[in-house]
Amino acid sequence: MIKIFRYGEVPNEELFFRQDLKSGVEDVVAGIIDNVRKNGDAALLEYSLKFDKAALTSLEVSEAEIDEAFAVVGDFRRVLERAAANIVKFHEKQKRTSFLINDEDGIVMGQKVIPVDRAGLYVPGGTAAYPSTVLMDAIPAKIAGVKELVITTPPGPDGKVNPYVLAAARVAGVDRIFKVGGAQAIAALAYGTETVPKVDKIVGPGNAFVAEAKKQVFGVVSIDMIAGPSEVLCVADGKSDPRHVAADMLAQAEHDRMATAVLVTDSMELAENVAEELERQLKTLPREDIARPSIENNGKIIVTEDIRTAIDIANEIAPEHLELCMDNPFDYLDAVRHAGSIFMGRNCPEPLGDYFAGPNHTLPTLGTAKFSSPLSVDDFVKKSQYTYYTREALSRVYEDIADFADHEGLHGHARSIRSRFEEDPE
Fold first, then answer.
1. What is the pLDDT of residue 9?
2. Per annotation, catalytic residue among 254, 320, 323, 350
3. Would you give the DSSP letter of residue 61?
């Protein structure tokens, strides 16, 4: 049964989602990365047999396999295409433009926005397939202008990749797909092998091994974030339907036994009804074996005096997903300061964002929404700045620059400036 607290009585360790990110797999992952660096494709084939039970002869998915997958998914293609169109519409608004400043004679400054050359997207396998992750991670990269976009994803024992993942990859415009999962996939993307190309940026969720591998290769490549287990915090008033709130909480709980679902409400009646509803719905949920330990070990209901206090709690927790289950959610939007993605009103459950609405579903977890943001087009671009001065423009300021350098004790810097305006002493 889920725990119910009155605000002020919640133990501090119960309030926050933050967990120890140490996974206990550091040494194992370091060994996998080292093996892939030294042995390339041979190591990847070895790990596919060991971990995925797949005896592969080729690591790359062929066009014929993608054609076959497209046929298998049938009418679901239309759902993928509609979702993709929504994701495109939202992320197109995130595109940045270069700028130039030329408001003083002889001085030009500017910034170029440049996409990374190659990005790698990790798509998990395991207990579920994630074509939604393909769309959410690939489309911003394509909008950014990434030249080559590759996916790594684990194969099944038959050596094939989930057809819905392959269909989504084609819809999103992915260039190449490789049958590689786990920490070995991250190592391959970071360092390259005979078959898998080295990338500049790695994005996408994964298990503890994948997360640890991303941590260990950061600096060799860029990464999006270290994602923890999924989270939802529902702020719901007393008029909310307990069936809907319970269903929204279970939508996150079924992801992972470590996932966290929290309700904060101003109604004890709603709290008790949601607790009962969670028990009722769990009994018929196909993934009860995953969702129940999530709810019982990590879930909680907090009862506050008013909704404003509930928003304050949400800001302290900084959840990955925040639902505002009320008739007037826009009255509280400005008060929300820390959340990955905000779902407004009674008819906007979090799965709408997982699949279809358009905003990205790759989000900061474990309280990191206090200082980080959802995956976006910005994650796939970098910026270079440039400066141009004529001799006359530099002459107006060179003494100030040299003085600045002298005060920092960097006299070579000062000499670099002064040498353009002083005769060679020799």
1. 80
2. 320
3. P
Q: Residue 206 corresponds to which tokens in the numbers above?
A: 């994964």
**What secondary structure letter does DSSP report for 370?**
G
How far apart CA 92 and CA 223 sit, in angstroms, is 22
Residue-wise pLDDT tens digits, 348-364: 999 999 999 999 999 99
The model's pTM: 0.92
Q: How many CA atoms lie within 13 A of 35 on its CB side?
A: 17
pLDDT digits (tens, 9 = 90+) for 20-42: 556 689 999 999 999 999 999 99
Query: Out of 91, 244, 255, 321, which one is annotated catalytic?
Result: 321
Name residues whose C-beta falls within 8 Å of residue 306's C-beta, 6 or more positions apart in sequence: 266
For the record, the structure tokens of 173 come out as 């415009």
> What distance in Å separates the CA atoms of residue 82 and residue 59, rounded to the nearest whole number?
30
How far is 217 from 294, CA to CA, in rounded Å?
Answer: 30
Interatomic CA distance for residues 57 and 155, integer angstroms:
12
The 107-115 sheet, strands edge to edge: 99-104, 107-115, 381-389
pLDDT for the residue 24: 82
379: tokens are 């994650």
Going 339 to 345 to 351 to 352, the CA torsion angle's sign is negative
What letter does residue 13 receive in the DSSP assignment? H
SS3 (DSSP) at 266: coil
Q: Is residue 320 annotated as a catalytic residue, yes or no?
A: yes
Contact 143, 88 (CB under 8 A): yes
Determine the residue type at 119: A
DSSP 407: H
The answer to whether 321 is a known catalytic residue is yes
**What is the spatial distance between Cα 144 and Cα 86, in angstroms, rounded to a whole number?**
16
Helices 63-73 and 76-92 pack at an angle, to 10 degrees, of: 110
Q: How many CA atoms lie within 13 A of 172 on its CB side?
A: 31
Cβ neighbours for 399, distance < 8 A, ≥ 6 positions apart = none
Enumerate the H helices of 318-374 as residue ranges. Answer: 330-333, 350-355
